[in-house]
Amino acid sequence: MRVLVSGGGGFIGSHLVDRLLLRDDCTELLVVDNFWTGRRSNLSHITDKRVRILETDVERLADVGLFDEIYHLASPASPPWYMEEPLRTVRANVIGVLRLLEALRPNGLIGFTSTSEVYGDPLVSPQPESYRGSVDCTGPRSSYDESKRCSEAILFESRRVSGTQIKVVRLFNVFGPRTRPDDGRAVSNFISQALRGKPITVYGNGLQTRSWGYVDDIIDGLARFFWLQPTDYPGPLNVGNDREISVIDVARYVQSRFPKTPIVHLPPAPQDPTNRRPDLTIANRELPGWACQVPYEEGIDRAIAWFSKNEELRSASHDDVAAEFRKSALHM
């Protein structure tokens, strides 16, 4: 079984690589990553000879043969990153999925990690997969949101026209070890800021809500859907935690672990969704026995412990990207 993971050096991708290596039928695993937002250190623990790492843009992937399974995760997922290079983001998703379809063996499977961002700033809660979203296809988040939506469309059309085996998941907010300290999203931002003795910065009033899924739980859901459980359902499938918590409550929880750290409020991020919560009806049907088990409080404590042990991350900063993000917010 030849398997390819694009974006395998990233936060979620590297955890998926670890889970794939538990499979006896995986004889070769090609990790494709340009290390734009991924980190080589996320893969440094791997000594398995089945793994080969190819440093390249997925959309420029040369002929590497055909694969039985392909999992496409190559894309930035944080607004400061994809807003900084929107065209590169579109290429990674859309051209990437087209290139990967060419590398798929007949009767092979391609899995795609889409996003809850396809729902935009939702007018219904929780969000079922049937909800078409309240989206702005020309707004500052469109490079990410719309390229994910387009990639979904390409895969479902390939299934309809050519019978391609696909599995599409829509991930909600994921956090945990191996996140970049300069990622720009809430949990990693709060922890890295607190560890550096800087104020915890909350965009807007912090009342916007998210559903925080610890990475171990999310990877378990992906593994069950992609290969462990016998389901022919192609997706889209919501995968996330259906416990909805405000950003300010998460900031306060991190602050409780660093009592001397103040919370400061910055202008709202551009078109930041007011709420996010998955309807897990289909997930409960297709993945019996799966659910997010790790409470966000415990997950944050684990993430704090991981960041604290990685000295090179404690002093790392993405202040330039964060500054650009604040600048874009101020000009909205």
Automatic annotation (TrEMBL):
One of its GO terms (molecular function) is NAD+ binding. Gene3D superfamilies: NAD(P)-binding Rossmann-like Domain. Pfam families: Epimerase (PF01370). Residues 3-225 form the NAD-dependent epimerase/dehydratase domain. It is a single-pass type II membrane protein. It is found in: Golgi apparatus membrane; Golgi apparatus, Golgi stack membrane. This is NAD-dependent epimerase/dehydratase family protein.
